[in-house]
Amino acid sequence: EVYFKNLSKQKQKEVMEKNGNNHKLRVCVATCNRADYSKLAPIMFGIKAEPQFFELDVVVLGSHLIDDYGNTYRMIEQDDFDIHTRLHTIVRGEDEAAMVESVGLALVKLPDVLNRLKPDIMIVHGDRFDALALATSAALMNIRILHIEGGEVSGTIDDSIRHAITKLAHYHVCCTRSAEQHLIAMCEDHDRILLAGCPSYDKLLSAKNKDYMSIIHMWLGEDVKTRDYIVALQHPVTTDIKHSIKMFELTLDALISFNKRTLVLFPNVDAGNKEMVRVMRKKGIEHHPNFRAVKHVPFDQFIQLVAHAGCMIGNSSCGVREVGAFGTPVINLGTRQTGRETGENVLHVRDADTQDKILHALQLQFGKQYPCSKIYGDGNAVPRILKFLKSINLKEPLQKKFCFPPVKDNISQDIDHILETQSALAVDLGGTNLRVAIVSMKGEIVKKYTQLNPKTYEDRLELILKMCIEAASEAVNVNCRILGVGISTGGRVNPREGIVLHSTKLIQEWSSVDLRTPISDALHLPVWVDNDGNCAALAERKFGHGKGVENFVTLITGTGIGGGIVHQHELIHGSSFCAAELGHIVVSLDGPECLCGSQGCIEAYASGIALQREAKKLHDEDLLLVEGMSVKEEEVVSAAHLIEAAKLGNTKADSVLRTAGTALGLGVVNILHTMNPSLVILSGVLASHYVNTVKDMINRQALSSVKTVDVVVSNLADPALLGAASLVLDYTTRRIY
Fold first, then answer.
1. Which InterPro entries match (predicted)?
2. Catalytic site residue from 57, 120, 532, 718
């Protein structure tokens, strides 16, 4: 183990030397306030953990050093980081002029610090005015800049500052695909953009299961329960201070009326801060029995507080970004975060003339639990950022190059900068096997895992979680970004709730099963669930013969008979989610008994189980085997033996297959007369044996107006997994589902 670790380190060292980094990369991380430290700290820990590659210098400035904001530099010391320099850069006044003066003071003080440190690269975060001073100083002193969280859009002066830092920065680490697109549209070099996710998510996604009750009791009181309190965090909007003060006043009035225990954090140092504090004191918030007003909460504890809150309210970016990782309801007030990507847990109150609108939003949101969202990260940002840092070539010219329009069609990164493929985790729950696969946006199965499907509910769910977690971990190694989990299962499914209502006899203990909640909670990913026949139709729509076809039907011919109907490009579920149970179309009133309890269903004639039943009958009567065939004593007679016998000239076996194909063909004729699709796709292992008989039945039995329908055999190798992946990939590319 030691040998291979040393070998890995040696290879990384060779890469750094090749890029001109034959000495340790000297990295300066400058942090201005409690919010940006929560994003920078995971990177700092990562840098500190690899002293063979990096030297870390920490510079602290801004509101970290002000008593009114909790002297938050102490948490940096508590994290065991050596602070190289403390710079007092905030000019008190809390108005627009004070912000400008603070930038000027920082510009005066920073050159001396940077001259002494001589860093190879400076890491700057976000969109604060302090960060603009840092980026300006480093750029003018020919120091490379790595900007974290560029390309995002909000609704205040922060946008302008963020984009100004982007223009000064040499390298960019962004959190979302949209942010990456924005950076490219701003003419930044594609090869210097890393889509890594938000570094704070590396800590968030491992935090929720830790002890939290003691933290809740410490900050809110011993009598407070989980999901029964509110966290409020509201900042001034510097482009409209007067309106933001009014909004804050209405928010406090609504919270007082709502009468729930509330933790209120003091606003940040922006212009308008003083007026907001006055409003708090005027309303007696610091002495109100339902409120706890604090200047600062350590990030580890703040995570636990928002993760288990009944609601978060305010206009902090934390509400629309980090809190989504826990599914906690959020009420976003005003315009400060306009343009941010948000999960379904966020309810926006853009404007409020009275407290009633905010109070109504509290009544709607409080106590809900939403699916966990990973829009801003998957918990693996720091390893990507460290690899990106190691790849920086110090021999490259310092002067930035801009990629002016037209923007390249191919927006992917170079493989050395961790090229990642948007992908889905696909789960296929069959009667025999349970399969999980990583499926790319192009339909490539990157990695597949197969296990026998357990017989009990508990064992099955445990195995699904275990296989999904293993696949999600492997996705990082194969450079795949998992967007969500899609599950294909037999039986009737409510896709809106992610619940298996009841299943076929092939899958035991699989009725009234909520699949979405436990898997989403465990993986922090959105989860979609649907019937296997519907998934096969989705696979054809995205990857197969159904691509671009407005109306088509897919029939699965396997152990059972299933299917899916696509009408006007959309999948049909029906009023009780029972549409497209095509295997249970009755084609004979006195036919063989079906597993559903009825008689004469297509499935009773043409399914693998039906063919196996007929094969056993022939075998018991010594009418199955012909010359060239043999069945071992312990071997189970199957549909495959029937098909083999028919190919070798067994007329009895051939008659069974023709009867099965005829039953399927009659069912297809009924479908044509009901739905009038332009295409019928036969999928599954038996499709090729039935296709000619089905076409013949259409010619003989169908109305002339539908005889022009195309009947084809699917060319997809694994429609169940591809369909499960389509549940995720169609949604994330904004297809309506």
1. ATPase_NBD (IPR043129), ROK (IPR000600), UDP-GlcNAc_Epase (IPR020004), UDP_GlcNAc_Epimerase_2_dom (IPR003331)
2. 532
Task: Tell me the CATH number of domain 22-198, given options 1.10.10.10, 3.40.50.2000, 3.40.50.300, 1.25.40.10.
Answer: 3.40.50.2000
Q: What is the model's pTM? A: 0.54
- 735 pLDDT tier (thresholds 50, 70, 90): very low
Q: Work out the average pLDDT over 529-543.
A: 93
Give the number of other Cβ atoms within 10 Å of residue 266's Cβ.
Answer: 20
Region label for 18, one of left (φ > 0), alpha (ψ between -120 and 50) or beta (otherwise): alpha
Nearest-CA neighbor of 488 among 447, 529, 453, 455? 529
Percent of the chain with pLDDT over 70: 93
For residue 260, pLDDT over 90 is answered with yes
Mind listing the pLDDT tens digit for each residue in 199-225?
Answer: 988 888 776 556 789 999 999 999 999
Q: Is 130 left (phi over 0), alpha (psi -120 to 50) or beta?
A: alpha
Fold annotation for 207-365: Rossmann fold (3.40.50)
Report the share of the chain in percent with pLDDT over 90.
63
CATH architecture for the domain at 545-715: 2-Layer Sandwich (3.30)
CA distance 326 to 722: 29
C-alpha dist (Å) from residue 178 to 202, 342, 375, 376, 424: 20, 12, 10, 10, 18
Q: What pLDDT, on the 0 to 100 scale, is given for residue 18? A: 58
- Domain 413-544, CATH number (from 3.30.420.40, 3.40.190.150, 1.10.1740.10, 3.60.21.10): 3.30.420.40
Strand 679-683 relative to strand 552-557, pairing: parallel
**Alpha-carbon separation of residue 395 from 17, 47, 398, 598 (angstroms):** 10, 21, 8, 76
Same fold, 207-365 and 413-544: no
Flag whether 492 is marked binding: yes
What are the distances in angstroms from CA 336 to CA 68, 159, 370, 599?
Answer: 23, 10, 23, 63
Based on the residue annotation, tell me whether 532 is a catalytic residue of this protein: yes
Choice among 205-209, 415-419, 498-502 with the minimum mean pLDDT: 415-419
Please tell me whether 601 is known to bind a ligand: yes
- Is there a binding annotation on residue 163? no
696 in a labelled binding site: no
Token pair of 687 as six digits: 């499709």
Query: Is 311 annotated among the ligand-binding residues?
Result: no
Strand segments, DSSP code E, in 351-432 are 421-429
Question: What is the enclosing helix (H) or strand (E) of 303?
Answer: helix 299-307
